[in-house]
Specification:
The structure holds two protein chains of two kinds. By secondary structure, chain A is an all-alpha fold. Chain A has helices at 3-18, 24-34, 41-67, 75-99, 104-128, 135-152, 157-171, 177-181, 183-188, 191-199, 205-225, 234-250, 263-278, 283-286, 305-327, 331-337, 339-350, 354-379, 382-400, 407-435. By secondary structure, chain B is α+β, with helices and mostly antiparallel strands. Chain B folds into two domains: 1-34; 35-183, no CATH class. Chain B has helices spanning 3-34, 134-147, 176-183; strands at 36-45, 48-49, 53-60, 64-66, 78-85, 91-97, 106-115, 118-122, 127-129, 153-160, 163-171, 174-175. In chain B, strand 11 and strand 12 (174-175) form a beta hairpin. The chains are: A mainly alpha, B alpha+beta.
Chain lengths: 436, 184
């Protein structure tokens, strides 16, 4: 339900009744139908944000204080200091789980604090005993010790910390593909929580934060783990991932009404535009003929099998989603979702003739932006019109300053497209005139 | 989930969170109290870690051995380095083996590179944490000291069962903390 619209309707009702547009009874019927509008969302947001920010700042402050490395402190004192803040955080969290299980603010806050204190404790011990540097082990231990909090305390910030942590962990194994690939099973640990958070009506900002972190984590992790054997395959891989974000994010969840609750959809849409725009240039297609210097040794043969398999699954899923939306005749999303097909085609021919792939994406981006502009005009939606204009303007500007094509060809193409616009305009005006 | 389950699992998680740091502490305390001390020659430099603070990075001088006959080694492989003391009283690696040496003090190390007959080793002695302002000073003290051709910085490390814990960093037989304090 769109609460803003209902709020607006309730504001209008008295006026409508006094002006005699609807009867008092009808107004009451409407109120009965839509029920009470909860206005506490903002308050909730403030309380939880304060709680989380407080916990984050105090937790990071403790880590920084430990980082100073107080020389005066003996090993015994340091031992106590390593454990005490952790135990305080545990007691707080445990008390909240037992006594205040309904308070989202307290749960989120104490879970965040506890997550940071686990890291602080291990860090201080590392410092006290000069433990040799093993950053990946440090990160992974820390992350595995905090991820259950996500579920026990229905807390999203530990999940976000976890996603950042496992992404950083994967980065340490860029030359060990099998280890790095564990990133995906590790990441999937938070997916049930993510789906749960999407279905929540209150506190929707949490799914937005988690989506942002997860989308970033997935893109970073894909860079560390996928497409390591075939130069330029990132073109197809990232196209598929971003398209999955976009189409899966558009999937209707029960109770989701605003775009704010579909952050993956927005991120995916923006991502698709950025990728398409990049593909109108030469550099992505030139990367296909780059040789990977490491392709010969560690990253090849059977160790690349998980990489290849996941790549196929991603491309396949993106295409399946595309057909789903094509079946629904949701043309805007279908057009955006066509990216993986084009990327695959472009990748196949781009190695030998980059110009062709560039041409393909220029045309496609032009079609999409014009289509968006037209749909916006038809449905009178200013948001869609503006994004359409923005996409078109970006493309036009980039090509105007492009040194690849000759001035004559550029000039002719610009004039042709301009004439096309004017012609469409005339046709639309005529039709409207005919109808009137 | 039922509340009893949550409480039960939660207690389990809390125990895990606390047991791990305690076991880290205990293992190192045991080594510091019972381990055999060795002096490793080293060169300290000063970097920074956002979570763990400032430290001096240690480059231990004995970090390669000649390859033992008839043994196949790989990059990143775990091997056991047998420790001995040279004529100047500093630690040296007498040889490496794939099996744990009995009745000998050894360190568990990993192979970092293979070059002909040379085997590079990664010793678990690479960081010495110091107070925020002291760590860069320590590097400076070492540099000033080594300019006078006396590169005698070393770490004292306690070793038991292949496990090493650093006890202290010394430059010219004095604890680095004392030198830094005096030079301020």
């Amino acid at each position: 339900m769109n609460t803003k619209a209902v709020q607006w309707l309730y504001q209008e009702l008295p006026d409508l009744v006094t002006k005699g547009v609807i009867t008092e009874a009808a107004a009451n019927n409407l109120r009965g139908h839509y029920g009470e509008v909860k206005t506490s969302d903002k308050k909730w947001f403030v309380i939880i944000s304060c709680s989380v920010l407080g916990a984050l700042l105090i937790g990071l402050g403790v880590i920084l204080l430990f980082g100073h490395n107080w020389e005066q402190l003996s090993r015994q004192v340091r031992t106590i200091l390593s454990l005490l803040p952790l135990m305080i955080a545990q007691v707080l969290a445990f008390w909240v789980v037992l006594k205040r299980p309904a308070s989202q603010a307290l749960k989120e806050g104490t879970a965040t604090f506890l997550s940071l204190m686990v890291g602080a404790s291990i860090a201080l011990i590392s410092q006290t005993y000069n433990i040799p540097n093993d950053t990946p082990a440090f990160i992974l231990t820390w992350m595995l010790l905090i991820v259950p909090l996500t579920y026990f305390m229905e807390a999203t910030i530990p999940a976000a910390i976890y996603v950042v942590g496992v992404s950083a962990w994967a980065g340490h194994f860029w030359n060990e593909p099998l280890k790095a690939f564990l990133f995906w099973p590790l990441l999937s640990v938070v997916i049930p929580h993510f789906i749960w958070s999407l279905k929540q009506k209150k506190y929707t900002v949490r799914s937005a934060i988690l989506s942002l972190v997860m989308a970033t984590g997935i893109c970073v992790g894909a860079g560390f783990t996928l497409g390591r054997t075939f130069p330029g395959s990132w073109i197809v891989i990232y196209s598929s991932i971003i398209t999955i974000f976009y189409l899966l994010g558009a999937w209707e969840f029960k109770g989701i009404s605003t775009n704010w609750q579909r952050p993956f959809h927005i991120l995916g849409g923006v991502g698709i535009f950025i990728l398409m725009f990049m593909f109108t240039f030469r550099f992505p297609w030139e990367s296909i003929s780059h040789r990977y210097y490491y392709a010969s040794n560690e990253i090849s043969s059977w160790t690349a099998i998980p990489d290849h398999m996941l790549t196929f699954v991603l491309i396949g899923s993106a295409m399946l989603l595309f057909f789903q939306f094509a079946k629904r005749q949701d043309w805007m999303r279908t057009l955006f979702g066509a990216l993986p097909f084009l990327a695959l085609f472009g990748y196949a021919v781009g190695g030998s003739s980059p110009a062709f792939s560039m041409f393909l994406f220029n045309i496609f981006l032009l079609i999409i932006s014009v289509y968006r502009l037209m749909t916006g005009i038809q449905s009178n939606n200013l948001g869609i019109i503006n994004t359409g204009i923005f996409m078109l303007a970006t493309l036009v500007l980039a090509r105007f300053f492009d040194s690849e094509m000759s001035f004559v060809i550029k000039g002719l193409v610009f004039i042709l497209i301009g004439v096309g616009f004017l012609a469409t305009n005339v046709v639309i005006l005529r039709r409207k005139g005919g109808a009137a | 989930m039922k509340k009893e389950y949550i409480t039960g699992f939660f207690i389990g998680l809390i125990c895990l969170q606390i047991v791990l740091p305690i076991s880290m502490i205990v293992k190192r305390e045991v080594t510091l109290r019972t381990g055999i001390p060795f002096r490793f020659k080293t060169a300290p430099v000063d970097p920074y870690d956002a979570f763990r603070g400032r430290y001096v990075a240690l480059r231990v001088e004995v970090n390669k051995v000649s390859k033992p006959e008839g043994v196949d080694l790989k990059y990143g492989q775990k091997v056991f380095a047998q420790l001995a003391v040279d004529e100047n009283g500093f630690a040296k690696i007498s040889k490496i083996s794939l099996k744990k040496p009995k009745d000998l003090t050894y360190l568990t190390v990993t192979v970092t590179y293979l070059n002909g007959n040379d085997v590079g080793l990664n010793l678990p002695i690479d960081r010495y944490y110091m107070e925020e302002k002291a760590a860069p000073r320590a590097e400076q003290v070492y540099r000033e000291h080594s300019r006078r051709d006396k590169q005698d910085a070393y770490v004292v490390v306690r070793v038991t069962n292949g496990f090493a814990v650093i006890e202290g960093l010394y430059v010219g037989d004095r604890r680095i903390e004392d030198i830094v304090k005096q030079s301020n």
